[in-house]
Amino acid sequence: MKTLYTAEATATGGRQGHARTSDGHLDVDIAVPPEMGGSDSDATNPEQLFAAGYAACFGSALQVVAGKQDKDVSQSSVTARVGIGMIGKGAFGLEVELQVAIPGMDESEARALVERAHEVCPYSNATRGNIPVELSVEVGQAAGATA
Questions:
Q1: pLDDT-based confidence at residue 39 (cuts at 50, 70, 90)
Q2: Are residues 65 and 28 in the same domain?
Q3: Helix, strand, coil share of the chain (percent; to 5)
Q4: Could you tell me if 72 and 109 are in contact, meaning their C-beta atoms sit under 8 angstroms apart?
Q5: Which of the 8 DSSP states describes residue 35?
Q6: 64/71 Cα distance (integer angstroms)
Q7: 46-68 and 107-120 helices cross at what angle (nearest 10)?
Q8: Cα–chain-centroid distance for residue 137?
Q9: Considering the domain boundaries, does residue 145 fall inside one?
Q10: What is the pTM of this model?
């Protein structure tokens, strides 16, 4: 692989700590979510950060594959849900659901674009074969949008 960019972040204190990127653009407190025994706080957690990164990256992959086919996905959205749980013997694992909404597009056409984006997205390539990733496609309103 020819590396085009390298992100750098440092975390201290684990799931009850702080994370900051080397350029300072991300500078957040980290906390265990209440569902995992943590206290309710204004801090984020690693799963939220992963979900945001995966959703953004997948959205870009969708734009690239759609652009190559002269398809407009400018109104699309990607919602990533990252679950964490026990996988046995004291180990934890992740699972991901990507909900992709492409308003105004035929469902079969949208599904084909989403499946192609899943083939080229770096996050999808990193997770493939390691954690379950479920794809869902909506052609109504944007994912996460409210009426």
A1: confident
A2: no
A3: 35, 30, 40
A4: no
A5: G
A6: 10
A7: 110
A8: 15
A9: no
A10: 0.91
